[in-house]
Write a sequence for this structure.
């Protein structure tokens, strides 16, 4: 069973160095939102932040985390970034 942390705070969510580098190269803020496959990290141009999102500093940018995802996330890492393989 998945249970949210009762002691949630944005300071307890860490961002991996790889994600910070990725975000800096994209020159954009990002948002962790809910998808059918679980949490996903998308540019705010595709998934705009909501006023209920938790804000986390990532280099010179911000990552907005859905209030529904935030209690379940400890680390924002490259596994949250969708990659597609092309034939």
């Amino acid at each position: 069973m998945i249970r949210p942390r009762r002691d949630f705070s944005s300071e307890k969510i860490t961002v991996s160095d790889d994600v910070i580098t990725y975000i800096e190269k994209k020159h954009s803020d990002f948002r962790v939102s809910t998808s059918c496959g679980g949490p996903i990290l998308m540019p705010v141009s595709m998934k705009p932040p909501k006023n209920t999102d938790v804000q986390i500093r990532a280099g010179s940018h911000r990552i907005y985390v859905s209030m529904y995802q935030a209690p379940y996330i400890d680390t924002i890492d490259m596994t949250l970034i969708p990659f597609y393989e092309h034939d």
In short: Strands lie at 14-15, 30-35, 38-43, 54-58, 61-65, 75-76. The mean pLDDT is 86.
